[in-house]
Amino acid sequence: MLQETAKAAWEYGRQFLMNGRVADYIPELGKANPVYLGLCIKTPDGKTVEYGDVEQRFTMQSICKVVCLAAALQQEGFDKVFSHVMMEPSGDAFNSILKLDTASNRPFNPMINAGAIEIINLLAPTFAFSDLLEFVRAICMDDDIVLDEAVYRSESETGDRNRAIGYLLKSKDVLTGDVLQTVDLYFKLCSLSITARSLAGLGLVLANGGVHPENGIRLLSAQTVRTVKTLMFTCGMYDRSGEFAVRVGIPCKSGVGGGIMASVENRMGIGTFGPSLDEKGNSIGGGHALEYLSRELHLHIFDSETG
Ligand code: GLN
To answer: Residues 102-133: pLDDT tens digits?
Structure first.
């Protein structure tokens, strides 16, 4: 039954692929094949249901912002984190520098580039890249995650806008560490190579209150998970977060590599991969597949019918 719904969601999402295009502002991402679409659902009782291109590796990109926020909340605590970043949707593009210069010293939220770079500034004194890689592997339930060197190089070569954000934060004394090292760590985390399955794993750990469902180990506190999911819901889909909340109604986070990670409270983690993106940078096939699943399975948080 769930398998049939997943296949139907994939078929629905696939119809939209030609309306989008792959990201090419990071040249290496421009090589992605826009016809890929994969969908993976993992449930707390150990079931995995998947359809399409779920084996295909792609880079995490902005979805790493969720992991960085979670690690910072665990390590530094709620008050410290939110003295460095705010919790408000920005309504601007993910890489915008505008409000950071005009409206506030602190980045609007941890799901935009400025916010993630500031969060990484908090993490950098405590965590090396290798520590964060281990954390990502555990929380995504995927030991095969590695750095995609080609994407990392490509990001670094074209990443001056992110460096500019870092320097602006430094000029306001909000970022206190070394700008180039901080942004470099951000590029590495964006360049971790994952699959739709890894994203379903991450979504499931979040849906399960921060506890790994297979080994029972608590990876995140309940408060961390609540905060992360709320910010995914309000800010996770860039400047389409409001529309996504209405249409899909699931906390989600997208990345320009084509991934979307979704977390349905107590019920499932969902990972989608489709590198054809809408004009805001969200996977167009993945977004529509999620909308289909939400409708069919009553996954919207304000849906009064149950699945
Ligand atoms: N590495 C990308 C960037 O900084 C991540 C952005 C994204 O996925 N939206 O531009």
So the answer is: 878 899 999 999 999 999 999 999 999 999 99
Kindly list the catalytic residues: 62, 65, 186, 238, 256
Helix, strand, or coil here: 205?
helix
Question: 127, 120 in Cβ contact below 8 A?
Answer: no
Q: Rounded distance, CA 292 to CA 248, Å?
A: 8
CATH fold for the domain made of 2-58+195-296: Beta-lactamase (3.40.710)
Q: pLDDT tens across 50-80, in order?
A: 999 999 999 999 999 999 999 999 999 999 9
Q: How far apart are CA 221 and CA 185, in angstroms?
A: 24
Question: Which residue puts its alpha carbon closest to atom 10 of ligand 1?
Answer: 95
Superfamily of domain covering 62-190? DD-peptidase/beta-lactamase superfamily (3.40.710.10)
Closest C-alpha to ligand 1, atom 7: 62
Mean per-residue pLDDT for 76-87?
97
Other CB atoms within 10 A of residue 11 CB: 14
Tell how far CA 138 is from the center of its chain: 16
Measured distance CA(134)–CA(124) in Å, rounded: 15
Q: How far apart are CA 188 and CA 128, in angstroms?
A: 11
- Rounded alpha-carbon distances, angstroms, from residue 87 to 47, 73, 185, 234, 242: 34, 13, 23, 9, 14
Q: Is 207 in the pocket of ligand 1 (CB under 6 A)?
A: no
Q: What is the pLDDT of residue 264?
A: 98
User: Inter-axis angle of helices 222-235 and 196-207, to 10 degrees?
Assistant: 120
User: Is pLDDT above 80 for 30?
Assistant: yes
Please tell me what DSSP assigns to residue 34. T
